[in-house]
């Protein structure tokens, strides 16, 4: 990911996204890295709900950076080889690219699916012995076509991470389960590749947020970035910011009025995500991401304008736009 120098930081893997939030909030870690959205499957709702913080467990968490990471999924498990023992050694690739018998007819048009899609990847061996799949919930949506083509109807079990999925499959003595995981996990567990690069999109990527605890500078505008130079469009595009807000659900146009504040100050919204607020059923909190950062006149004026039209809002940080840096 390249966000931290291993010579200056000690890495501490956590089991869940919530564990990362806890470690940072408690001051046990200076920074945390959490997934925020995937180019294929959209927002990671687990992370959004932790930012919503209905139980006030993480009141000081803000975003301070982002990284884009290409994600390539593999199907890992034990091959069904009649009359032979399981191949030993880590991550042995089966050379025979044999389609699963269950894939027959997967590209045949039917009334419910008049335009079927072929999977980008094909199994490296028969998958007819696979009875159960393990993976993180986000992975299912990134590999829908492959799963529909070759493993339709197979039981799926959500687990905390794709690496945990590989561990469970490695411990399965029946050899009838498989994991959607990574090539690194195959090396670590000794599992075989049953299929490679099974994600639907070849440019599949996940955006990760770098989080830290809130500091004094997060609550007041910075004098360094105010002024004419700080407010030009090029400078605004160099940064992104995130905040959440709630509005009255009974006042007509309440949400539209809140969003109009951004447009009236020339702020470009890049994403909007609603999540349950926890206040009442069907009441929502809205997360908005936009160009610019706190301390720029347009952003500060927008925040002042929000005070007049929303019930509440929470600042969730500013950071350098990683995509802008690549251009």
From TrEMBL:
Entry keywords, A to Z: Amino-acid biosynthesis, Aromatic amino acid biosynthesis, Lyase, Phenylalanine biosynthesis
UniProt domain ACT: residue ranges: 243-320
The Prephenate dehydratase domain, residue ranges: 1-213
EC nos: 4.2.1.51
A biological process term (GO) from this entry: L-phenylalanine biosynthetic process
Region of interest: Disordered: 86-122
Reactions the enzyme catalyzes: prephenate + H(+) = 3-phenylpyruvate + CO2 + H2O
Enzyme class, spelled out: lyase
PROSITE patterns assigned: ACT, PREPHENATE_DEHYDR_3
Gene3D superfamilies: 3.30.70.260, Periplasmic binding protein-like II
Pathway(s): Amino-acid biosynthesis; L-phenylalanine biosynthesis; phenylpyruvate from prephenate: step 1/1
SUPFAM superfamilies listed in its UniProt record: ACT-like, Periplasmic binding protein-like II
Superkingdom as given in the UniProt entry: Eukaryota
GO molecular function: prephenate dehydratase activity
GO CC annotation terms, alphabetical: cytoplasm
Record-given protein name: prephenate dehydratase
Species in which this protein is naturally found: Aureobasidium pullulans
Taxonomic classification: Eukaryota, Fungi, Dikarya, Ascomycota, Pezizomycotina
């Amino acid at each position: 990911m390249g966000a931290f120098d291993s010579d200056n930081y000690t890495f501490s893997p956590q089991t869940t996204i919530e564990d990362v939030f806890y470690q940072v909030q408690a001051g046990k870690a200076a920074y945390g890295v959490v997934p925020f959205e995937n180019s294929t499957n959209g927002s990671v709702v687990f992370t959004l709900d932790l930012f919503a913080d209905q139980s006030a467990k993480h009141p000081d968490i803000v975003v301070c950076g982002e990284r884009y990471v290409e994600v390539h999924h593999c199907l890992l498990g034990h091959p069904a080889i009649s009359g032979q023992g399981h191949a030993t050694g880590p991550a042995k690739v089966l050379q025979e690219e044999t389609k699963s018998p269950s894939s027959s007819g997967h590209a045949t048009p039917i009334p419910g699916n008049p335009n079927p899609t072929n999977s980008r990847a094909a199994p490296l061996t028969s998958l007819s012995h696979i009875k159960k799949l393990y993976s993180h919930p986000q992975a299912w949506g990134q590999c829908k076509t492959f799963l529909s083509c070759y493993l339709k109807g197979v039981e799926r079990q959500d687990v905390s991470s794709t690496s945990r999925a590989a561990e469970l499959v490695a411990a399965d003595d029946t050899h009838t389960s498989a994991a959607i995981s990574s090539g690194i996990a195959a090396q670590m567990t000794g599992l075989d590749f049953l299929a490679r690069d099974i994600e639907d999109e070849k440019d599949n990527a996940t955006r990760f947020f770098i989080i830290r605890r809130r500091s004094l500078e997060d609550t007041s505008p910075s004098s360094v970035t105010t002024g004419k130079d700080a407010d030009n469009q090029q400078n605004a595009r160099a940064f992104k910011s995130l905040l959440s807000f709630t509005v009255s659900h009974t006042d007509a146009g309440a949400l539209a009025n809140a969003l109009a504040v951004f447009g009236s100050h020339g702020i470009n919204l890049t994403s909007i995500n609603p999540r349950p607020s926890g206040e009442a059923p069907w009441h929502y909190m809205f997360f908005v991401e936009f160009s610019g950062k706190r301390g720029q006149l347009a952003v500060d004026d927008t925040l002042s304008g929000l005070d007049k039209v929303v019930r509440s809002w929470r600042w969730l940080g500013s950071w350098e736009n990683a995509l802008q840096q690549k251009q």
